[in-house]
Amino acid sequence: MSTNNKNEKELLLAAANNLRWEIGENFHDSLMESIYADAALIAKKAVTEKGEKLYSSWDQKLDKIVTSRIFGLPLMFVMLAVVFWLTIEGANVPSSMIASLILDDVHPWLKEIAASVGLPWWLDGVMIDGAYLAMAWVISVMLPPMAIFFPMFTLLEDFGYLPRVAFNMDNLFKKAGAHGKQALTMSMGFGCNAAGVIATRIIDSPRERLIAIITNNFALCNGRWPTQILIATIFIGAAVPAHLAGLVSAGAVVGIAVFGIFLSLVVSWGLSKTVLKGEASTFSLELPPYRPPRILQTLYTSLIDRTIFVLWRAVVFAVPAGIVIWLVGNVHISGESIAEIFINWSDPFAIFVGLNGVILLAYIIAIPANEIVIPTILM
Among residues 199, 158, 101, which one has the least CA distance to residue 305? Predict the structure, then answer.
């Protein structure tokens, strides 16, 4: 056994010696020259001598604008407004086309099939008017805006812009008594609150981590973006001339997002001054280099991993919610449906808090998934 090991060692040394001479006599010199050249390039980027102009790469030139104290935050708001405007304007046509197909064409066709096979009225109602209609509303309302918003948001993330957003927000969170990394977790919360909460583990201080967890809910997650966009389009965009509807709706959604950031800062400040009192920690944030967006990979990631995932989650909850909606609307007690009884009973309280009985009922039914609130109301 030892003889075999000795032979293998000799063969390995012989192979290494052969390779050593194959790479040439100047290998070590070339290696050291490349190391010193890289070191000089790094030093040139990071160190300037007196009277020497600062080395400026394309990344640094762009960062002077993107992370500027003057232009950083306004540029962030403009970027959000453009994304929302494109989402709102682009989602109108496909949303109406999908709704026309699955609501105006497929739904009557399913009703005809159910009638032709003699399906009981209650089963017809539960399956078609309940489960199917809920699923159809969710798809027509949520799919187009998500299919536009998520790819654009992912492109910004892939380009390297989101860490710059965190950098711009760092000083504000520091003044609010929170950790600067909370800006990163909040940015992730705009994609998904669950991911944002999980990301708070990058904050070492338990006090500041708890503040980040509590306030992450103020960041609008991907499940709420389509709902916010739809509400802004219906209630705010409809109140202005048609040619301004998209712009005003986008501005309203940006306003809600900014208001969420404001609430996050206010609540963080309040917690850091009361029940979670303490000093804010410092940290170093390394900005990654800008990268050309990988279009195909981004489309796949955003459409499959985000759009389809969120839509499927909404559909899974919408189907049983649709069944519940049909049941409460068609099961009668003393001549009134369960829905009518609840709406009439809760209407005074709901109006007091700015809602009505229908919306309150929709909120209760949609507790498992906030994505289905609007489809529930529409049904």
Answer: 158
